[in-house]
Design a protein that fits this description.
The structure holds 3 protein chains of 3 kinds. Chain A has helices at about 45-50, 70-75, 95-105, 110-120, 140-150, 170-185, 220-225, 230-240; strands at about 5-15, 15-30, 30-35, 60-65, 65, 80, 155-160, 185-190, 205-210, 210-215. Chain A is of the alpha/beta class. Chain A has one domain (about 30-45, about 75-240): P-loop containing nucleotide triphosphate hydrolases (Rossmann fold), CATH 3.40.50.300. Chain A is globular. The model of chain A has no long low-confidence stretch (mean pLDDT about 85). Chain B is α/β, with parallel strands linked by helices. Chain B has 2 domains: about 1-215, Rossmann fold (3-Layer(aba) Sandwich); about 225-290, Alpha-Beta Plaits. Chain B has helices at about 40-50, 70-75, 95-105, 110-120, 135-145, 165-180, 215-220, 240, 270-275, 295-305; strands spanning about 1-15, 15-25, 30-35, 55-60, 65, 80, 155, 185-190, 200-205, 210-215, 225-230, 245-255, 255-260, 285-290. Chain B has a 6-stranded mixed β-sheet, with helices on both faces. A 4-stranded antiparallel β-sheet of chain B has the order 2-1-4-5. A 4-stranded antiparallel β-sheet of chain B has the order 12-13-11-14. Chain B is globular and about 70 Å long. The model of chain B has no long low-confidence stretch (mean pLDDT about 90). Chain C is α/β, with parallel strands linked by helices. Chain C has helices at about 5-20, 25-45, 60-75, 85-95, 110-115, 130-155, 175-205, 205-210, 220-245, 255-280, 285-300, 315-320, 325-335, 345-365, and strands at about 50-55, 75-80, 100-105, 120-125. In chain C, strands 2-1-3-4 form a 4-stranded mixed β-sheet, with helices on both faces. Chain C starts with a helix and ends in a 6-residue tail after the last helix. The chains are: A alpha/beta, B alpha/beta, C alpha/beta. Chains in contact: A-B, B-C.
């Protein structure tokens, strides 16, 4: 297995506050890695460092073989990023969004048209490709955002709370799509605060207060902590850390 | 007696129907949950119940008073914790508590019993500015502030969103205590698994109530046989499983697959055979289970395609 | 149970805590007026040292020479030379030789002696109206002083007849221009802008939702929020008057109580405007934007603070009539500089009172007991 993301002793401090505290992990190609934790646990900060949007205070990050902060240019074309807040222009149509973001990544002309058509078909978006994003239900918006993050065929996708507040069916639809994508060899790193979604990942990392408190396959973690569900795993992990505020 | 009576309630923002003919009754002493995804209309409904918004049609009575005409009588009798962080971050824990007590004409001392459970957890940090608390502690402080005047009805808008697992559980335990002190609770959440904490639950999607029942009642309303399937590598067989003749629907559920069968004669054996036939090898662990609220919700969404 | 008065007191206490904990804002609100006053003071006085002027003297007698010398000796003016006739005036301005021309009428000495009135005229280069008005004011004050020294006994009986093309700011120094101007600016900032922002902040934070469902009455919330700012604004008034008096030697000619009463009226007006903005704006950013464009810019541009209203196009002059600061500035000058009483500012006071009542009524009508 080729390691597509390698993180070594990564730390990020904001003033005296340590958002990410000495974490190390790696992700192989085609793997779905879940990054779990409550709001403020350091998930988003980690993702931002992986994208090269934030400089680490210390530690090393290699994404697709490049140094995340020093070679951000190379990395940007190799990762797809979808955040819970910004991802699409609501007043543009689905087609226009895909075209715009394709253009951003340097696709144009016939190449862009082919890629956009392929995405429209893969994600079954043809019936509403000419509707504005804001007129579509939230579940579909997430799906389109995912399609857009894949427009430049990145080998790695980073998804920051993609399913936050989405209905149960749309959440499942989304995860099924992620599995399809990863079957083609794409690496996916997904953050979530829905603990049950941990089960949909090949491997999970659990973060509490910036620290990595557990890592492994969901089944390994469950037997390790003598629990039947990931929720219980998470609870016993978090309780250990809950002595401080 | 109904403490909250929501009748034929509709509300639109321009073309968007935020609430569509909603009917809910919350009885005195109940812990009532309003469950639905983002954008389902939960916050709009809660703001109408708290008299902060007016409905387009229909009405809401809280404690027997109409939210339109008698809003002044309702305000002061209810406690409300909005979805947004609603504390003063530059004031300390103690100052926030004192302020909100004062606003409602109460003192912390006279209702100390009610908030003792929460306050006990907050006390070590009472001189810390509210803005510097962790997410879970902030929610606990906001809960204390909403309770401090001993309201008859406590209304909470997504108190557990974005809060860590431990704080979520603690918050529900606190709500349980508060209920036992005789306070009626109306709480919204986007987490399906929290439904089991409530006496009764209303499922809401796209402004419409899909059902009101107890968590147990929902399971009984589920019309099909439901199987919980575990097998290694099952995800790559999803398309084939869905093509099976008895398959009503099949979807991921944690590490397992939930299989809804259209055939009342289905057994674990018949289903195991079907799965082996489509090529699923190795150990297949199949149990028939009672439907949970999430299964019911998924069924309602698939039955009413216009809702999803 | 705590009842009404204590509930209100509880609210005001909280508001003071917000203000005193936010050190940056507090400094801004208390120190900025002083800095602003000093900056205006020094920038303006630096601007008009040694301004060049020319004289068109139809008298050429002892007194007219004395007057010119007096102007030169004031330190503000530098004599460029004498002009021959009126045609030269335009040329002097166009070539930039002079920023101000003093025309002295015929027989100055004799006329002052016998008729106790004389003609002179000050013409300034209005291409830079600020400097022009300040220079005119300076020249005027020198002439006043000159006449007062030589003919003081007569002056009381029969004032010297003066004629000037730029009669505004006919008084002594530029301090008269910027001290009232700064006061208006600061009061607008502290009261209108700060209150509108602090009320909309509660809307943004979600605390307003909780306050609305509490037994607090709307006026509790609004008055509770503005009361601390009244205190701060009044402190600013005292500081500015004190500094004007000590640093810039601004004589306080009028009744001090009347002056403070006038300032209080304006504070109330500015507050009602701030409250009105907060009832319309849904976010802090919008409140800030509205305050900037609806309050600060007109205060600076249209109140007569920097650009004399008399020099504005007619449309802007009419527009200035609906600007609250214009009326305050006018009344302030009447009281502080001319030393006149209430009767001379009755128009301004009534207009401001009317505006305040209008905004308060509008705010009450617009204040939402609900969210939309």
């Amino acid at each position: 297995m080729i390691k597509t993301i390698e993180v070594d002793k990564l730390t990020k401090k904001f003033g005296s506050f340590t958002a990410v505290d000495n974490i190390s992990f790696s992700v192989s190609s085609g793997e779905i890695l879940g990054l779990l934790g409550a709001n403020g646990a350091g998930k988003t900060t980690t993702i931002k460092m992986l994208c090269g949007l934030l400089a680490p205070t210390s530690g090393k990050i290699k994404v697709a073989g490049y140094n995340a902060y020093l070679q951000a240019e190379q990395i940007r074309t190799r990762i797809g990023y979808m955040s819970q807040k910004f991802s699409l222009y609501n007043d543009l149509t689905v087609w226009e969004n895909i075209h715009f973001f394709g253009g951003v990544y340097g696709l144009w002309g016939k190449q862009l048209k082919l890629r956009a058509e392929a995405l429209i078909d893969d994600f079954e978006m043809r019936p509403f490709m000419n509707l504005t994003v804001q007129s579509l239900p939230p579940g579909w918006r997430q799906r389109i955002a995912l399609a857009v993050s894949l427009v430049h065929n990145p080998p790695i996708i980073l998804l920051d709370e993609p399913t936050s507040g989405v209905d149960p069916i749309a959440r499942r639809m989304f995860w099924e799509t992620i599995h399809q994508i990863s079957a083609n060899g794409t690496t996916a790193l997904v953050t979530t605060h829905y603990i049950d979604e941990a089960e949909y990942c090949n491997n999970v990392l659990v973060m509490v207060d910036g620290k990595l408190v557990a890592a492994g396959q969901p089944n390994e973690l469950k037997s390790l902590y003598n629990s039947t569900t990931m929720d219980d795993v998470f609870l016993s992990l978090a309780r250990n850390e809950n002595t401080k505020i | 007696m109904s403490y909250i009576e929501i009748s034929n309630l509709s509300k639109s923002y321009g073309k968007i129907k935020a609430l569509n003919n909603v009917n809910i009754n919350v009885d005195a002493g109940e812990l009532f949950g309003l469950i639905g995804p983002d954008g389902a209309g939960k916050s709009t409904l809660i703001r109408i119940v708290t008299t902060l918004l007016l409905p387009d049609s229909g009405y809401v009575n809280v404690l027997g008073y109409n939210t339109r005409e008698d809003y002044k009588k309702i305000r002061g009798e209810i406690g409300y914790m909005p979805a947004v962080f609603s504390l003063y971050s530059d004031l300390t824990v103690q100052e926030n508590l004192d302020f909100f007590a004062g606003v409602f004409g109460a003192t912390v001392a006279e209702n100390y019993n009610l908030i003792r459970g929460v306050y006990h957890m907050l006390e070590p940090f009472k001189n810390r500015p509210a803005g510097k608390l962790s997410g879970g502690m902030k929610q606990k402080l906001a809960l204390s502030c909403a309770l401090i005047h001993r309201p008859k009805v406590l209304i909470l808008d997504e108190p557990t969103t974005g809060v860590d697992a431990v704080s979520r559980r603690e918050l529900w335990e606190l709500l349980y205590d508060i209920k036992h002190q005789g306070i009626t609770i109306f709480v919204s959440t986007a987490y399906m698994d929290e439904a089991k904490q409530c006496d009764r639950v209303a499922l809401i999607q796209k402004g419409r109530v899909l059902g009101v029942n107890s968590p147990h009642g929902f399971a009984q309303m589920f019309p099909h046989k439901l199987y919980d399937v575990y097998a290694d590598g099952i995800w790559s067989f999803l398309d084939k499983i869905r093509a099976l003749d008895t398959c009503k629907s099949a979807y991921m559920f944690g590490s397992n697959l939930h299989y809804v069968s259209t055939d009342d004669a289905e057994t674990t054996e018949t289903l195991t055979n079907k799965l082996h036939q489509i090529g699923l090898s190795g150990d297949v662990d199949i149990k028939q289970i009672n439907a949970g609220i999430e299964d019911y919700f998924i069924r309602q969404l698939t039955e009413n395609a216009e809702l999803s | 149970m705590i009842v009404g008065r204590n509930m209100f007191f509880n609210f005001v206490t909280k508001e003071f805590k917000h203000i005193f904990r936010d050190v940056r804002t507090l400094l801004l609100v208390l120190v900025m007026p002083i800095i602003q006053l000093l900056i205006f003071g020094f920038v303006i006085s630096a601007d008009i040292k040694n301004a060049s002027f020319a004289v068109l003297d139809y008298s050429h007698d002892v007194q007219s020479n004395k007057l010119v010398q007096r102007l030169t000796a004031s330190g503000y003016f530098k004599l460029m030379g004498y002009l021959k006739n009126e045609n030269d005036i335009e040329k002097a301005f166009r070539n930039g030789d002079a920023k101000l021309v003093l025309i002295i009428g015929e027989d100055l000495a004799t006329k002052l002696e016998r008729e106790r009135s004389a003609y002179y005229q000050i013409i300034t280069d209005a291409s830079d109206p600020n400097t022009a008005s300040i220079l005119a004011g300076y020249a005027q004050s020198v002439i006043y002083a000159f006449v007062a020294e030589n003919y003081s006994s007569y002056l009381r009986l029969m004032p010297v007849e003066i004629e000037s093309r730029m009669l505004y700011n006919e008084e002594m120094s530029s301090a008269f221009m910027f001290v009232p101007g700064t006061m208006v600016l600061i009061l607008m900032l502290v009261t209108a802008m700060m209150t509108s922002i602090s009320i909309t902040r509660e809307k943004e934070m979600g605390t307003m939702e909780v306050l609305l469902i509490s037994p607090l009455k709307p006026w509790h919330i609004v008055l509770g929020k503005v009361l601390p700012y009244i205190g701060i604004a009044f402190t600013n008034v005292l500081v500015i008057i004190f500094m004007g008096y000590t640093v810039f030697h601004l004589p306080l000619r009028g009744n001090l109580l009347l002056l403070l009463a006038l300032c209080s009226l304006f504070i109330i007006l500015a507050l009602s405007l701030g409250i009105f903005i907060s009832t319309v704006a849904s976010s802090q950013a919008l409140a800030m934007f509205m305050s900037m464009f609806a309050l600060m810019l007109p205060t600076i541009l249209l109140s007569g603070f920097i650009f004399p209203i008399e020099n504005m196009p007619k449309v802007l002059q009419w527009l200035s009539l609906i600007m609250p600061p214009r009326w305050f500035l006018s009344a302030l000058k009447t009281i502080m500089i001319k030393g006149q009483g209430l009767m001379y500012t009755i128009n301004e006071v009534l207009v401001m009172l009317g505006m305040a009542i209008m905004f308060i009524i509008l705010s009450i009508k617009k204040f939402k007991v609900r969210l939309e």
